[in-house]
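I have been asked to look over a protein record a colleague put together. Alongside the sequence sits a line of tokens, each denoting a local backbone shape. Please read both lines and tell me whether the tokens look consistent with the sequence. Take the sequence as given and treat only the tokens as open to question. I have pasted the whole thing underneath without changing anything:
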Amino acid sequence: MTFETVIAGIVNVFTNPAGLLWVLLGVAVGLIFGALPGLSATMGVALIIPLTFSMSEVTAIGTLIGVYIGGIAGGAISAILINIPGTPSSVVTSLDGYPMTKNGLAARALGWATFSSGWGSIISWLLLCTIAPLLARICTGFGSPEYAALAFFGLSIIAAVSGKSVVKGLISGLLGVTLSFVGIDPIWGDMRFTFGSVNLMSGISTVAALIGLYSIPQIINSCMDKDNEKISGKDLTIRNIVPPFREQWKRKFNIIRSALIGTFIGIIPAAGGNIAAFLSYDQAKRFSKEPDTFGKGNPDGVIASEASNNGVCGGALIPMLTLSIPGDSVTAVLLGGLMIHGITPGPTLFSEKPSIVSGIFTMVFVATIFMVLLQVFGIKLFVKTLNVPVNILNSILVMLALVGSYAIRGSFFDVLLTLFFGLIGFVMTRGGFPMAPIVLGLVLGSMFEGEFRRAIKLGNGSASIFLHRPVAMFFILVAVAVIASTVISRARKSNKGEAKE
């Protein structure tokens, strides 16, 4: 692309008021879909595509990108306010976001989530505009050994999200990994743990499990809680919501590191924002001077999660635009939207239609700005959901949870699955077992098993294939280092506690 075509694409975007309004609408729709448990950015993009048929290419793709960015950021709203993640990647946000709400800092927690999402999206946008082709070529060279090593790395951080008890965290993680085995064997095609049910052939729906483990227990606990606190409207000022720039600058390394992790994970096809959020949270905790405050309302936990999962947005667009390979489920739908409008992603797109590419890049930036503004000025409406009478709010949440679990695959079995996981989650939370390791194990367990077994087959039955793959060995060594450092740090804390006693 030449400098002139880039400028022409930017000018085309900003001289089209109708196009900007459509992007604003797309972001608003995305925020709603992200904030409502059971709905998703993927569903929002798919539903909006028919409305874009009469639009120009750049306006249509900009609208869809707006839904994408808004949907990923919107998941933090319900995660922070009512401890029910709107999206899988916002599970990590709830670890510190909801404790901040319980501490009377809901507005500040939402402010940190908003601006972290904005910075994460902008950093990934900068990488999208500059080194997109190079990064895409590197990461699309990943094979089964690299994916297996990446999944192993992800599983190694279960201890970091286990809360006070590592043993209970490991039990939860093991349960999640075990649940990931349900369904068809990824290599031989045999049925495993389906108990003769056709509904379990495709495995356990991650969304149904997520809604059940987080929504139902929280709703039951809310019904049992006699002291449901409300937030006063006087606290909902721009000054309380917007984190001071000095505070943002103080946490710049956490923001940049998390955004880079999110961008890198986004480039890798099928990795997803939930992996990025968990990895970023783990790194933020390790680099923090106060790691013990994570899980108790530390803003760095919210920052790491939100900067990374919105960093995934720009990262996932890189392989989609340069190599026609979607980075996640949302960009897979976006890819279909591009083709409907006669745009074929790939290396030739940059040389044949540079103005459209620069227009898309500009729309990503515009959508990010709209996302931040809508959340800052609409945050009063979000926080007021806490002041809705508990019986009405819980009734609405139950309905949304069950409708959302049904809407994903159109299966009533998923509704029953949601209720089942809800009861399991309620019992486990009463016993002090964390939910995040279950979700992590469920998401990464199947990925690790399938890719590890394929890698062994590629190595003719030998695990030595990993020794000849530098990237895979890097992930494995980092995972081993993470496990070792976690064990050592826990042992030191235990010794210090015994010495004090």
In short: The longest helix spans residues 470-500. The chain has 22 helices and two strands. The chain has a mean pLDDT of 79. The radius of gyration is 22 Å.
